[in-house]
Amino acid sequence: MFIGHFAAGFAAKRWAPKVSLGLLVLAPLLLDVLWPFYSLAGIERFRIQAGGAPFHNLVFESYPWSHSLLMAVLYGVVMAALYQWRTGDVRGARVLAALVVSHWVFDWVTHDPDLPIWPGGPTTGLGLWRSVPGTVAVESLLFVVGVGLYLGATRSKDRIGVVALWTFLALIVLLYAISIVGPPPPLGAERLVSLTAMTFLIVLPIAWWIDKHRK
User: Fold this and answer.
1) 104 is a domain residue
2) Which residue, 14, 35, 67, 158, has most beta carbons within 10 Å?
3) Is 96 in contact with 80 (CB distance < 8 Å)?
């Protein structure tokens, strides 16, 4: 999943209006935010696969600390507890916890059977990625619905709230298209992939800024 995770964050604004879009996007992306740090630290492993089809360029050999169901639940609980402690917003905290866990659920649908239930435990995955058209159709539908729910739950305060939002959405779609039709990363460039993945952190302040211009 890629834009499917963004879709969850956008959609959640309807049920957690007090939570910034920055946090709502961070929550479903949190496992992927942690993954490159763990990979660079040698805690988790992946390799680039030569001639891999779209969505199969990377082989995830071991990522139990960022992508197991148990850890997703733990991260969700911690994020929710911190948010509730800072704001007192119980409803928003519950939504954030659900969003963190939603990442694993969405990945379970798309990934091959490589997602751990718990560190060292059995792995699972339904393998939607084996069908590129099926994956694109499902993710695109989720994205349209998620953005539609966000638009229905907010309205712009000014021109920035319109232009910046649609520019942001176009950038997400462009990055998704590149991940499908673009060239695979070169063999042996695992470190570069991890460093590149970290750049997605930039979307969080952008989402927060856009949300400040909508109500």
Assistant:
1) yes
2) 67
3) yes
**For residue 143, how many other CB atoms are within 10 A of its CB?**
23
For residue 98 the two structure tokens come to 């659900």
32, 85, 82, 39: which is closest to 62 by C-alpha? 39
Distance CA 130, CA 110 (A): 8
For the chain, how many structural domains are there in total? 1
Distance (Å, whole) CA 87 – CA 107: 30
Residue 75 in tokens = 């991260």
Taking alpha carbons only, the member of 21, 53, 49 closest to residue 215 is 21
C-alpha distances (whole Å) from 215 to each of 13, 25, 118, 179, 210 are 11, 17, 39, 32, 10
What is the model's pLDDT at position 1?
Answer: 67
Higher-pLDDT residue of 161 and 1 is 161
Find out whether 66 and 38 touch, Cβ atoms under 8 Å.
yes
Does 28 map to a domain? Answer: yes
Q: What is the mean pLDDT of the chain?
A: 95
Q: Which structural domain, as residue segments, surrounds residue 76?
A: 3-210
Task: Convert the pLDDT of each residue in 159-199 to its tens digit.
Answer: 999 999 999 999 999 999 998 988 888 888 999 999 999 98
123 within a domain of the structure (yes/no): yes
How far apart are alpha carbons 55 and 110 in whole angstroms? 9
Looking at the domain assignment, is residue 215 inside a domain? no
58-62 vs 115-116, strand pairing mode: unpaired
C-alpha–C-alpha distance, residues 131 and 145, integer Å: 21
The amino acid sitting at 162 is V
